Structures
1.
Amino acid sequence: MDEDPFNPQMLLGEKAEKRLDPIFWQSVPTPANLLFPDTGLEAAMDEGSRSYGAAYQRYPNRVALFIAQNTSCASYCVHCQRAKSLDSTVEVNNIEIEKALFYINYNKNIDEVLITGGDALRISEKRLKYVLEELSKIQHIRVLRIATRVPVVLPFAITDKLLETINKSANKHTEGPDKYVYFMTHINHYKEITQDFVDAIKRIRKHGFTIRNQTVFLNHINDNYRTLTETFRRMFWIGVHPYYLMQCHKEKGIVHFISPIQIGKIYMKHMQGWLSGIVKPDYVANVEGGGGKVLLMPSGHDTLNIEKTIDDKISESYATVYTWDERTMKDYEALGRATRKEYREAVKIMNKFIGRKGVFLPKIILVDEKGNRIETTNRTRLPNLEKLRTAHLLEYKTNYKGMPITNPYKISKKLDKMFYKEKTDK
Ligand code: SF4
């Protein structure tokens, strides 16, 4: 392979820095995509067996309506769980859409439709308008959700004209209460919150839509307490509500992006209190075979085994999981697998590719030649997240003019003095 096929002009010092960029990792395939051929036990998502036409139903009151062929996404994320569908056999034709609309019309339990693909905004405006207008005729539909990465990766395409079309079409034939439109987007790192994205969000909000975001928990991209909290709060500052932190789906070629569930749970636990409830998303795994989202941290109940040693807490991330519709899956295993030889070879290749050692840290279950589990790599030590350290990590001023992190009552006398002084000085 060429020393640097992506940027032959890149200076040596620059290389490692650029190769560690979270947007680079999400957007550009690297040799790592070919290095771990065994994903382990998990099968792929099973959408075909729960579909009628372009409608896919996993929950009682809502369907995903695939109006765009999977190849039409605005961003070909390297970690995409639909990457396997990026071929010509997945085109959504008009008949499929007609069948889906027919089904949605007949099933009166459905009050919510997720319009998706690929990317719902990467199809012709004519098709989008048609679908929205047809949905506007169905009285039991109350919510339309548009799944798109366009505001993030192609913000200039979010024009007032497009938003006006969506607004009008979604309620063109509505009788009774309006159908409410949500934009569902996908940001994994605060570096994606650019000024152009902020401007696109402002335009979307101006037209009366709400924007919600799902983030995928990704090793090498956002597997870091500060990165995640920063990403969630910066989204919230501009009117984007985080709603899911998703465990990376196990697919061939992307196992180096998967982080152990235990690590994600620990981050979530330590976000409690430091982020408002409406900023903190639910941490979920989307299990295969149409099992739906499994909450990985459903309550304040401590599932972190605090009596155990730090190393034990970073488990191999396998567990029995319970789906929302009461199915039980034994030995759900979040991480990918590799033999020790494959692992060592992969790290060597990626060190060369990145230009630095010690930053490519796949979290993999090592197995022997017969496939038996040996151990998990990179059992990272847990960060020590006591209060003051967390405050510093999140860049809170811990002693600015003697102000406390919480509870002004403790210094109320001092505050009174300052308050009255300021009033009399005026
Ligand atoms: S935006 Fe979503 S659907 Fe599109 S490539 Fe990325 S993960 Fe896949």
2.
Amino acid sequence: MKTITIDGEEVQISIQPSNARRTLDIEFNPGEITIKVPRGQKVDLDTIIAKRRDLFTRKYREAISKIKLLDGDIIHIGGKPHKIETRETPNPTEPRVEIAGETLRIQTKEKENPLEILKKWITEQTRHLIQDTLQKYEEKLGTLPKKTRIQYTAKWGECTKKGYIAYNWQLATLPRELAEYVIIHEAVHLQHFHHQKGFHKKMEQTLPNHREHEKKLHRYIAIPADFPYKK
Ligand SMILES: [Zn+2]
């Protein structure tokens, strides 16, 4: 088995001999490329990768079909797409950001950038999500972070050796279970700093579906770090 990196994701490539096949066939799954070869046929994985790397990359992207968390005026909240609608001169009795069915409504005062308001709101949602998730898994986790921060970089989450955790402001845009996966993943690093046996064992105990979640997470393209773009 070999690993190649596609769009920052580690993708495993393996060969699987097949009795049923008379020609080579390639299967694409999240995090995995499987090359099925007729049994008895000799193939060298390194050679195939060297020759077909571009093809693998292109086909993999197609097969996995990435999802942009912000795509034009469509924003995902909790993994569900919503159309952004902006209204000026807000009704003071209504919240500044509101979800109504498949619409996300932003109310702006004069000269306010609605996307700035949206960013603040998503950050707030993420803050609640982190609190709720850590509370929900407190017993299983055992150790909770001393302090969590919200960050505006490209990473979903980060843990330092000193026990500080930073989470991405846009976790609330992801499907809930994937956001929870990120939150728990970083919290588990408090006890197991490296991705080694102990880490995986603890992840298994805390969140049995964590590998599936990790793969799914790669399908999502985050909102660019410089959002809302300065003009
Ligand atoms: Zn990690």
